[in-house]
Design brief:
The protein is mainly α and 394 residues long. It is built from 15 helices and two strands. Helix content is 74%, strand content 3%.
């Protein structure tokens, strides 16, 4: 467990350090996968299926805000549907306008949830989204999950009936043909019991998970994950029976359990608390009493490993000289005269310096002796003069 906590701290520290670049990378890959899935499902506009166009658009969305990923994906869908049939493009435009005007205009950060919900359906892990949104999002995020389900079923219906729309468009754009195509889309998508049942189950699961994880109880996230997994499993099985959706019972059970396990991994990184060290604090001010429950996060100190670099250029000169002396015998014989000449010159300079030092020392000593002798003479002269004066006075 300590190793996992250390790994978590290391990952979080690296994310904080390189957050800007990591954000660019995940936005690039999210856009790339989204556009690739759109082109594979309804690639009616051949110009947009070019890998170069997809790559350039992904690079553009990597440096732009998250909302542009949804906008660009919507433009790709509209272009493909317009090449297929005008009616499909108009209906898709109406759906996107409703989503923008009713919700995403006021909550643009939830726009990524729409794309992730549709992508999870294509990746065969759709049960992850209601649990993840309930744990990390808000109650309003249910709308994003619902619109993501609508977009998936709409594109899936168009992709399954592409040949029908192509043949009906070739017959002519008479009013009766247009009405029949619109009616088929409405009956096949918006009146589908399967889509309505899935939206209801996902919405109920998201709200239950959100409410439970907000409760002031121990292990609230664990309880929310278990309750959401059971609700999702039972709800999908009931919807399968009611709407005759044809879901695999084993697939529903396995997918729900897998989603719950993935949410445990998410909990480890996002909400890992130590319930053994709960502290209840009570204090007051002039107007209120405050009752606070403080639960510390589980954390471990990461080992501080310091690598000391030894630079050869900063080594002491004595060590360099020793190293040079040790390396001198291993040189080729052709360099031996040079080294011996250099050694003799160095010893000659040292002898000259020693002789100069000796001469300077001897000169200083002789100067001191001369000064002492002169001082003694002056003292004797002054003493003799004083004695003569005293004799004369007598």
């Amino acid at each position: 467990m300590a190793t996992l906590l250390e790994l978590k701290q290391i990952i979080k520290s690296y994310y904080v350090k390189f957050e800007f670049y990591i954000t660019l990378v995940w936005k690039f890959f999210l856009t790339l996968i989204t556009l690739s899935v759109i082109n594979s499902k309804i690639g009616c506009q051949e110009a947009l299926t070019s890998p170069l166009i997809v790559l350039m658009c992904s690079l553009l969305c990597a440096i732009l805000p998250q909302a542009f990923i949804v906008i660009l994906s919507g433009l790709f869908i509209m272009a493909h549907l317009w090449a297929l049939s005008m009616e499909t493009a108009v209906i898709a435009l109406a759906v996107f306008l409703i989503m923008y005007l009713l919700y995403y205009r006021f909550s643009p950060n939830d726009s990524t949830v729409l794309i992730l919900t549709a992508l999870c359906f294509y990746l065969r892990i759709p049960y992850v989204m209601p649990l993840a949104v309930g744990l990390l999002g808000s109650a309003h995020s249910v709308v994003s999950v619902a619109f993501g389900v609508v977009v998936y079923y709409y594109l899936n219906y168009i992709a399954d009936n592409t040949s029908i729309f192509i043949s009906s468009s070739a017959e002519g754009d008479t009013s009766a043909a247009v009405i029949s195509r619109v009616q088929s889309i409405v009956d096949g998508v918006f009146a589908s019991k399967v889509m309505i049942s899935v939206i209801a189950v996902f919405a109920i699961t998201t709200i239950i998970v959100y409410i439970i994880r907000r409760l002031s109880i121990k292990h609230s996230w664990d309880v929310a994950i278990v309750a959401g997994t059971i609700t999702l499993m039972i709800g999908i099985l009931v919807a399968n029976v009611v709407s005759s959706a044809g879901f695999s019972v084993i697939g529903v059970i396995f997918g729900s359990v897998l989603a719950g396990l993935l949410m445990k991994v998410l909990e480890f990184f996002a909400f890992n608390l130590d319930y053994k060290r709960i502290e209840n604090v009570q204090f007051e001010d002039d107007d209120y009493y405050y009752y606070v429950k403080a639960i510390p996060k589980v954390s471990v100190a990461t080992p501080d490993r310091k690598v000391k670099q030894i630079n050869r250029a900063t080594a002491p000169r004595s060590e360099e000289r020793t190293e040079r002396v040790e390396k001198t015998p291993s040189r080729p014989n052709a360099q031996a005269p040079r080294s011996s000449a250099a050694g003799s010159a160095q010893s000659h300079m040292q002898r000259r310096a020693a002789n100069a030092y000796g001469r300077s020392t001897q000169q200083s000593r002789s100067r001191v002796v001369n000064n002492n002798v002169t001082a003694g003479r002056q003292t004797r002269n002054s003493t003799g003069t004083g004695n003569q004066r005293s004799n004369r006075s007598e």
